[in-house]
Amino acid sequence: MHDHGHSGDSSAHPGTGGPGHGRDYDRTPLILTWEVTQACGLTCDHCRAEAQEERHPDELTTAEGEALIDDVASFGDPGPILVLSGGDPLERPDLFHLVEYATAQGIPTCVTPAPTDNLDRETVAQLADAGVRRIALSLDGATAAAHDGFRGEEGSYEAVFRTARQAREVGLPIQINTTVTAATVDSLPDIADIVADLGAAMWEVFFLVPVGNGTDLEPLSPPASVELMEWLYERQRGAPFRLITVEAPHYRVVAQQVDSDARVGSTRAGRGFLFVSHTGEVYPSGFLPRSAGSVREASVVDVYRESQLLRSLRDADGFAGRCGTCPHRSVCGGSRSRAYAAHGDALASDPLCPGPERIASLVG
To answer: How many beta carbons lie within 10 A of that of residue 303, not counting itself?
Structure first.
């Protein structure tokens, strides 16, 4: 969610069935993330939102937020899962009201709170009482020194464990989000063990897109990404948590090389996933800063279904370069956000993928 962690593609979603849950991604996203504010007390190394100390004066108001939630409800059934992210969503005093408003309309709603002093036992209980289905917590190191260094906040590591314990006490499911960079990859096996020990329902592994503060971090090499994906797929088999990757759709190709019956998530920017900024701009994802419209001017349903930008992102046959000719393009499609960050063209090839032949030679 991202969010305090993966601002933008953080899905924080309850596992309600198999990948896609039988919906038509041309009509309805699986995940709609609303960045309710960019205000946050943390200064994380990889933050897409380049978080601010103060709330933006042009944030969507409570009434505009309610109107957005009304529109989300009008996608129909099955509708999207709504993720309230940031910044730190707890910086908005109307957060609990917004959760209650969405829950009353039957919208599964999740929150990605930052591990600050705002997130205490009472707040966790209030989130549960308001109807939150799941909260996402970020863990980017297997030790306090590694995680707190990445997050730029001493005590952040302990806050994750404390919040997970408090959530368990009130019956609120959690997911753990982890950012993969060249610096964090070696700690993933230990983090996976922690995810299991915490009783998390899901582990969301986010492959860095170099935007915002994240431009200073070193991403994995393409071959290393494939090796990691193979390990991730093997690690999640029989694990007590579900694993999803974000901004790494060639994970699907790798998984199917390992196991022809593999079923893994199938969303990507603008196709199954949508992001609404704190000021109401609609983006394919929080990592692809091209606006498809504004919820202040049009229903988010119409923007998702009719925007030329979003329609082009859903048409893998129109992609350029290797992604456009890849035999796996309908299954994968590449990270449109990373293509845009690397080439300035959202329809270009994803530089993290080494190509289908190389994947086939690396797996196994």
So the answer is: 22
In angstroms, the Cα distances linking 187 to 234, 250, 281 are 16, 22, 36
Q: What is the pTM of this model?
A: 0.92
**Residue 33 DSSP symbol:** E
The answer to whether residue 16 scores a pLDDT higher than 50 is: no
Distance between CA atoms of residues 3 and 150, nearest Å: 15
What three-state secondary structure class fits 256? helix
DSSP letters spanning 194-243? HHHHTT-SEEEEEEP---GGGGGSPPPPHHHHHHHHHHHHHHHTT-SSEE
Q: Judge whether residue 118 has pLDDT over 80.
A: yes
* Biggest CA-to-CA distance, the chain: 54
Partnered with residue 73 across adjacent β-strands are none
Nearest to 331 by CA among 363, 356, 354, 306: 356
Task: Give the type of residue at 48.
Answer: R
Considering the chain, what percentage of its residues have pLDDT values greater than 90? Answer: 79
**DSSP class of residue 347?**
T
Band (pLDDT 50/70/90 cuts) for residue 23 is: confident
CA distance 77 to 107: 10
Domain boundaries, the chain: 19-317
Rounded-to-integer distance, Cα 339 and Cα 358, Å: 19
Specify the DSSP class assigned to residue 87: S
Amino acid in position 183? A
Fold held by 19-317: TIM Barrel (3.20.20)
284 SS3 class:
coil
Alpha helices in 246-320 (DSSP H): 250-258, 300-306, 308-314
Digit-coded pLDDT (tens) for 162-210: 999 999 999 999 999 999 998 899 999 999 999 999 999 999 999 999 8
Distance CA 173, CA 201 (A): 6
Residues 6+ apart with CB under 8 A from 361: none
